[in-house]
What does this fold into?
Amino acid sequence: MTDDGFNKGANVLKSGSIMSENPEMLMREAERYFQEALRQKDLRQMAEKAHLSATLAADALILRMGWEKPKSLFARKRALESISIEEAKTYTFIVDDLHRDCFYDGLCHTETIKKRMEDVKEFNERIRKQLIAKNLKP
It folds into this structure.
């Protein structure tokens, strides 16, 4: 395991914190995964870590809004739609381009990945601000 908590071989956290139902912990992990994505040289690994970052941030918001933690992509997108159509659309672009197209299918267009990385950064920042606006810890 590296100093930042990532297992070098599997590239996953061993602490189980990504499975947490604590919104604050999920937001911290979202930031950690985004920073890890930025350090990647391989576009597929960058895409996967950035996608996970957005998923953790989405789950933090969903939990804070009183919903159950989603157990599927379908449930996550429906919960986000109920909270904000715009955030649901952004998350869908992230999932499609980073997770499905790049990570799974290997179709990693550099400019698209750069754009989606910026989308993830902005998405996570908006969620953090929404949590703060609700007088909740980010």
Notes: Residues 1-16 have pLDDT under 50 and may be disordered. The CA atoms of residues 97 and 112 lie 7 Å apart.
